[in-house]
Amino acid sequence: xxxxxxxxxxxxxxxxxxxxxxxxxxxxxxxxxxxxxxxxxxxxxxxxxxxxxxxxxxxxxxxxxxxxxxxxxxxxxxxxxxxxxxxxxxxxxxxxxxxxxxxxxxxxxxxxxxxxxxxxxxxxxxxxxxxxxxxxxxxxxxxxxxxxxxxxxxxxxxxxxxxxxxxxxxxxxxxxxxxxxxxxxxxxxxxxxxxxxxxxxxxxxxxxxxxxxxxxxxxxxxxxxxxxxxxxxxxxxxxxxxxxxxxxxxxxxxxxxxxxxxxxxxxxxxxxxxxxxxxxxxxxxxxxxxxxxxxxxxxxxxxxxxxxxxxxxxxxxxxxxxxxxxxxxxxxxxxxxxxxxxxxxxxxxxxxxxxxxxxxxxxxxxxxxxxxxxxxxxxxxxxxxxxxxxxxxxxxxxxxxxxxx
Length: 405
Description:
This protein is an alpha+beta fold. It is built from twelve helices and 22 strands. It has two domains: about 5-110, NE0471 N-terminal domain-like; about 130-400, Double-stranded beta-helix (4-Layer Sandwich), CATH 3.60.130. It has helices at about 40-45, 65-70, 100-110, 110-125, 135-140, 145-150, 150-165, 180-185, 250-260, 265-270, 325-340, 385-400, and strands at about 15, 25-30, 40, 55, 60, 75-80, 85-90, 95-100, 140-145, 165-170, 195-200, 215-220, 230-240, 245-250, 275-285, 285-295, 295-300, 305-310, 345, 355-360, 360-365, 380-385. GO terms for molecular function: 2-oxoglutarate-dependent dioxygenase activity; metal ion binding. Keywords: Carnitine biosynthesis, Dioxygenase, Iron, Metal-binding, Oxidoreductase.
C-alpha cells in the first residue's frame, strides 16, 4: 500500500487519465518532463509491482504469489505521479497499490528506440560483420598482463570480441596456465570431452583431425554438441618454422548474409536442412560418442544468424533427410565453403600469442606444416562460454556506469 506520509505530498501529485483503451494491450501513458512520454502495458506494470508483497529486493526478482491466481483482466482504477519525487502511483482493480520510480521506468520504456538501445547496448553488443579483405580494420591487439591486471582492458577486450568476433592477445608467457588465468578473469573454462584445456600438435595415430600436420579446413569447433562452446582461446607455445601453420579465419555470419542476398534458395537450404554431426572416439581413458543434428546456418526467431555448424571431418556419414534434399544441400554447401575461403584472412601467430574468437560465428583453420623433432607446432586451447563472457561484460559495465539495469 502507499506510504502514510504520501498525503503530505498531495500538492505534488498529478492525477492522470485512465489507460488508453487500445485493442490490446491497455496502455498506461506516463508523462516524463525530461523526454518523450513513456508507455507501458497495464498488465506488465501489475506483474512488475515493486512492493514488498510482490518483489524481493535481495534476489532482484518478483515473488510468485501473484501468479498463483493471476487475474489477466486487472485494470488501473487510478493513477498519478509525484512530479518532485518522480514516482508513478497506481491503484488497481484487484485492490492492490503500486509505485514505480521514474529511473526504473525509463530503463524499461516500451518505445522502439529504448527497446533497441537495451538489446544492442546492454543485452548483447551489436555485431559488426566483416570480410577477410577488411580484417586489418577490425583486428585489434590486447596485452596479456593488462588483461590480468586491468578491468578497463578486460572490458575493452570482451567488448571487441563480442562485436567483431575476434581479438588477438599478445605477450603472454610461454607457460601452461596462461589460458586458465585468462579464463578465470572472465569466469571459468568450459569443460568438454577433451578436458578443460587441450594441446593441438601433431600426434602419431591421432583420433582427431586437428592433431594431424595436414591442412585443417575452415570449421567451427565441436558442432556435434547441442550446447556449442562459445569462445575459443588458442595459445601459441611453439610455432612451426616451416612456411605452413598459417591461421585461416572467416566471418561466417558475413558469408551467410551474402548468401541470403545473392543465393536465397541455397541460404534457405543451409538454414532448413538438418545435418548429422558426430565425434566418436576416445581421449585417454574416456570413450565418447557425441551426436547432434542441426543445420549449418542457425537463425533466431527474428531471422538473425546465431550459430554456424561446419566441420568436414565431423559431419557424419548419416544424413537423416529425404533424398530429394541431399543434392540441393551439397550445392548450397559448395557455395558456402567457396565464399568462406574467398573472404577468409591469413596470418601466422607467434609464441606468446593468444588468438581468441567467437566459435558460434567464425570458421577457422590452418595450412599444413612440416612436423619434425626440430620443427614443432604446439598450440594450447580452451573454451569459455558466451553466457559467462556476457555476464562478465555486464558486470564490468555496471562497475563503470552505475544505474545500468
